[in-house]
Amino acid sequence: MNILIAGAAGFIGSNLSDKLLKDGHKVWAVDNFTTGKSENLESFKDNKNFIFAECGVETEDFLKFCSDQRVKFDQIFDLACPTGVPNIEILGDEMLEACSNGTKNILRVAHEHNARFLFTSSSEIYGEPEVPVQSENYTGNVDPIGWRANYEEGKRFSETLIMHAVRKHKLNARIVRLFNVYGPNMALGDFRVIPTFITQALVNKPLTVHGAGTQIRTMCFVDDLINGLILVMEKGIAGEAYNLGSDKAISMLDLAKEIILATESESDITFIPRAEHDHNSRMPVLDKVRALGWDYKVDLRTGLGITIDNFRKRITAYDVKYSIDESLQLQPQG
Ligand SMILES: NC(=O)c1ccc[n+]([C@@H]2O[C@H](COP(=O)([O-])OP(=O)(O)OC[C@H]3O[C@@H](n4cnc5c(N)ncnc54)[C@H](O)[C@@H]3O)[C@@H](O)[C@H]2O)c1
User: Fold this and answer.
1) Model's pTM, two decimal places?
2) Domain count, the chain
3) Measured distance CA(253)–CA(269) in Å, rounded
4) Catalytic residue at 322?
5) What region holds the NAD-dependent epimerase/dehydratase domain (predicted)?
6) Of 127, 315, 137, which is closest to residue 240 (Cα–Cα)?
7) In terms of domains, do 81 and 197 share one?
């Protein structure tokens, strides 16, 4: 199949490109490297079935790249959006642009190509949930003028654009709401909790736990997640949203302890102030995606082992300094 991936140089996009190429597909990919890295494309950039353009999805260059290819895209994955909690402020303009004009442009291409379309939304669209578990019909608790709104409302607006296109143009589009994902190719300095803790542990610096570390998250290994994205693309119903992730909870303090153990690190744990906007807990209901035949298979200890090996290979002095200095002041990803 001919498949377009927007945001292909990112953590999930690069793992998805790799898998789709290995499955024998031809992949067209775009990324503007806002938070992605060219090194993530290294292992397959010379593959003749991989065609890459550096451009933002909100630009004319993106539309031109798509029309210049003179192929029909069968599937389009839209992952293009800056990530990382501190980037909600630092890359606020880019986030809002990707979620508005970017999503609009990709939907336009999907319509022109009559392609199946999948958008990676986020558990952040539920905001600070008032219910202990979140099913897809929970409408969330988001503050539109709150600190996290650039990302939370950005993703919500993208979802609205998609549903409008489904209703107006009968677009074959589905939404996947990702809960926390981890694995190889996460950027070392991207402030999310697992890369931050692993980097700190590998250089024997204290792991910075925010507050008492009682925040609860669920962590899904990227290979499981990719299988879920491909399955929902193929079997998911147009106009439906699907939660995707793990439903096994872990507190941030327990996660820090687990990573110290897995890295055999001499690090201690240090407790630092917690941001007001940090969410307490998130827990997906996974019935809809399980009904399609998906489940996660990789347990946390195995997934952490694979991720730690990957980090050991990539770690550099610059990345360590960046990750550690910044993570002391800024929030790990919720
Ligand atoms: N990793 C997670 O835990 C998680 C959780 C929820 C949702 N998501 C969503 O999944 C998608 C992929 O996330 P990720 O973890 O791989 O993050 P990432 O930051 O590694 O990847 C996002 C990619 O999109 C690119 N990008 C940003 N703006 C762009 C634009 N305007 N045009 C083209 N490319 C652009 C970035 O450079 C980057 O390569 C994102 O949409 C993110 O919001 C991820």
Assistant:
1) 0.92
2) 2
3) 9
4) no
5) 3-245
6) 137
7) no
Residue 325 falls within a domain, yes or no?
Answer: yes
Ligand 1 site, CB within 6 A = 6-7, 9-13, 30-36, 56-58, 79-83, 94, 98, 102, 120, 122, 178, 180-181
* Average pLDDT per consecutive 10 residues, the chain (334 residues; last block may be shorter): 98 97 98 94 94 98 96 98 90 97 98 98 94 96 94 98 98 97 84 90 92 92 98 98 96 96 94 79 94 97 96 71 47 42
Report which protein residue has its CA nearest ligand 1's atom 28: 81
Cβ-proximal residues to 179 (8 Å cutoff; 6+ apart), any chain:
123, 217, 218, 220, 243, 244, 245, 246, 282, 284
Q: Tell whether 139 and 212 lie within a shared domain.
A: no
CATH code of 314's domain: 3.90.25.10
Q: Are residues 187 and 128 in the same domain?
A: no
Q: How far is the CA of 10 from the centre of ligand 1 (A)?
A: 6
Number of H helices, E strands in the chain: 12, 13
67-to-13, 64, 176, 248, 269 alpha-carbon distances in Å: 22, 5, 27, 43, 52
